[in-house]
Amino acid sequence: MVQEVVEPTTLDEACAALAEYGDSAKLIAGGTALVLLMRQRLLSPDRLIALHRLPLATIEETGPAVALGALATHAQIAESEVVRRHYPALAASFAGVGSRRIRNLGTIGGNLAQGDPHLDPPVALLALGATIAVWDNGAEREIAADQFFIDYFETALGGADVITGIRVPARLARTGLSFVKYLTRSKDDYAAVDLAVWVRISGDDTIDDARVTLGSVGPRVFRAHGAEDVLKGGRPTHRRLSQAGDDAARASTPDSDVRGSGSYKRDLIRVLLPRAVRSAVRDAARGEPGAKGATIK
Amino acid sequence: MRLTVNGNEVELSVDPAKRLVDVLRDDLQLTGTKIGCEIGVCGACTVLLDDEPVSGCLTLAFQANGRRVRTIEGLASGESLHPVQLAFIETGAFQCGFCTPGQIVAAVALLERVANPTEDEITEAMSGNLCRCTGYYPIAAAIRAVAAPGRHDSSRADDRV
Predict the structure, then answer these.
(1) Which single residue of A162, B30, B35, B123 could bond B24 by disulfide (Cβ 3.0 to 4.6 Å)?
(2) Contact status of A292 with chain B (Cβ, < 8 Å)
(3) A157 three-state secondary structure
(4) A24 touches chain B (CB under 8 A)
(5) Which CATH number does A59-169 carry?
(6) pLDDT digits (tens, 9 = 90+) for A10-56
(7) Could you confirm whether domain A4-48 is CATH 3.30.43?
(8) End-to-end CA distance of chain A, in Å?
(9) ipTM score of the complex?
(10) Chain B CB within 8 Å of residue A296 CB
């Protein structure tokens, strides 16, 4: 039974409350995931520390980065002109989470803190090399996305940490991002496979650098380094894409569940990766930052 | 806490962790909003929080403090039903009626945001509201009818719910 809801107005107040109440308190942002966990009796906090009064909901360009405040909602990020201009695929990764009702309340900070490997935005953020800003008793530090996702519902966050924001590099010329959410059931479901590809190209389509990330096919979102190595340094030929797809499928450990068998999901990865690479290359070729990009469907 | 419900300022003393849907139904006797799945999936508890649809079963009372809530009861103007309510009657968009308040509230939110939504936009916006009775078609037809009277022709080849 929740005895009290604390509503701090500053980060220091929030951290003080966390320190005072320890394990018996839980941070709550949008609350959609937390209330669900409480409903399922997986969590029974005595106190809720509500973050909604903290000024952490802005989305802005800061020169070298696009900064997403931890309390920005999925709906706000999906519809943000700034995010769409830099990375339409990143906006798309927020636009499919749950339903509109969930997206209106759920925040990016809450999404990341959950560490659920089925969630879409972490897959795109990992491909972009995002950094997560964390406040711990007056000290702010940054955690690279590569180090953030550790295991099933386990992240690099400590018990006294509050996520304040997420930064992705501002879009540079000749770089592109694609994101694929492959659904085998209803629209509000988790994906059978989540896949994102980021590339930096030279010439028409020579891939100089690549990041391949996967979600819903293992205990955490992760990078398929083998597939990345296959792609780097060459053109996206059929042979190279096929090999990269095989590598990514082999690196995945998908569960067999209602969304498909493990082997089916691996087959999906083999098919989807080449498409995602080609899509990322097209995004990279579309022009200078700020050029009109693909419309979000 | 203090909030605005269907245009009226309301002051309440409630457990801040109480579900918004329970505050509306039990403390304010606004039982139009229904409780279905209780996990945010079915949409029967859809209400508008500052004009945006949210799940009343996943929203806690304190989150509505100082904000505007609109429910199914707040859509009609006196004796005049809201255009979406009238359209639902016209197209037969409800049978048992249980999902209907949530459907209408979600539809109102869509049409306030996009006056003449495309088929994709209708599907996208309404896909979180489940119905076991109607098969969804008349619900989409009701939305089309409000968006553009005369648009209800269901014989178009690209007309998909």
Answers:
(1) B30
(2) no
(3) coil
(4) no
(5) 3.30.465.10
(6) 999 999 999 999 899 999 999 999 999 999 999 999 999 999 999 99
(7) yes
(8) 42
(9) 0.92
(10) no
